[in-house]
Amino acid sequence: MVSDRLHHKHFNTTVELIYYLCVHINSVNIRYADTKEPRVKFLLMGVEKDQFSTYRKGTGNLMESSSSLDKFRQYADSKRYEYGYPDMVFLMTGFDVYSEEKDGTKSLNVLGIGFVGGLCTQFFVALGEDSAGRFNGMHTLTHEAGHVLGASHDESSPKSWIRGDPGSLSCPWKDGYIMSYVDGGVRHHQFSPCSLRQIQNLLILRGTVCWQLSTSNNGHTEPGRFPGMEVAPNEFCKSVFPDKVNVTADMRSDRMKECMVKCQYPEVRKYCYGYRCNYYTAIKYTYEHALDYMYCGLNKVCVRGVCKGSAGNLPLRPVARSTTTTTTTTRTTPADDGTTECRCDCSSKQPTTRAHYPPRSPTPTRKYRWLGINRRQ
């Protein structure tokens, strides 16, 4: 993995960075637990703390997604020997990734981008945003790695450059699995049956020479450590509302048993009638998916979106998502649903065509989307 300057500056030592990435990957591996024949398990083989980001296209704290990914591909390909010939290279960035729209404007609604089916080829890269120390890039890493392993967005046609690709037309976008942008509750942490078949197809196509681990390289691991053990709930919510003060997590919320964290902050409002003014404290909040092993009840923790105290089968029950405002003086609850149905525009006429998605809003202040790059192998 490559950690750029705006990302790795958060960590005092390289050891701290490696530990953080290993914990990150532990959560990613939980989401790949349903893969089989072969089973996918990621292993961190090395980390580069990049100071200069010569592959970055953009000004200030911005990174243009498509052109930066192309340059990062060349950068990583030139370092294959130095990296130890990895199957995949992922750039974890602290820059704000954006895309250029047809009208020339910059859209900041981007979380990550990667090459579909690029595993063990010269297109073996992806990149994604992460707020260092908060683990909020874990789902992006899972999603973009899925692209590199051959999974298209759900409800997509087979990719012509991947031999035998079954596609994902039979898995509705609205079901809200990992390779969709709709929040399907528990399914948000699982791959659809179509994605699992696509990943299996590509791994068999590439063969064991691609992905079989050398017995001489054990990589870096931190067994038994997960993000919810590392980040306090209040700190987690601060990454949801980074520009607000007095942000807290309401761990007594009824939806905590659904592994949905209620992140909230107060906002003082002034209402004047004639010569008299009243002040009201409005509590604004939204619900976010809990980190793995975040407490959700007495002796219970969240694992892949399920609150449980021991191993068991994961239910497939969708959870609604909402953004609401309440007041502490005159209480009101004007609900504002934060979920949007997203359309998929996955054209494969050009190898470099991007899959664009109108954003859904995980917070009231910022919207996101993923981009998938289609590249002919």
Structure keywords:
377 residues; alpha/beta; Collagenase (Catalytic Domain); 7-stranded mixed beta sheet; 4-stranded antiparallel beta sheet; globular
Q: How would you sum up the major sheet?
A: 7 strands, mixed
Q: Give helix and strand order, one letter per element, not per position.
A: EHHEEHHEEEEEHHHHHEEEEEEEEEEE
Largest beta sheet: what is the strand line-up?
2-1-4-8-7-19-16
The CATH class of the largest domain is identified as Alpha Beta
* Helix percentage: 10-25%
Number of strands: 19
What is the average of the pLDDT values? Answer: 85
For the record, the CATH architecture of the largest domain stands as 3-Layer(aba) Sandwich
Number of domains: 2
Give a written overview of the molecule:
- InterPro entries: MetalloPept_cat_dom_sf, Peptidase_M12B, ZnMc_salivary_gland_MPs.
- It contains 9 helices and 19 strands.
- The chain is α/β, with parallel strands linked by helices and 377 residues long.
- It has 2 domains: 2-227 and 341-373, 3-Layer(aba) Sandwich (Collagenase (Catalytic Domain)); 231-327, no CATH class.
- The strands form 5 sheets. The protein has a 7-stranded mixed beta sheet, sandwiched between helices.
- Strand 5 (96-100) and strand 6 (106-107) form a beta hairpin.
- Helix 2 (14-31) packs across helix 5.
- It is globular, with a radius of gyration of 21 Å.
- The two termini are 22 Å apart.
- The model is unreliable at 311-369 (pLDDT under 50).
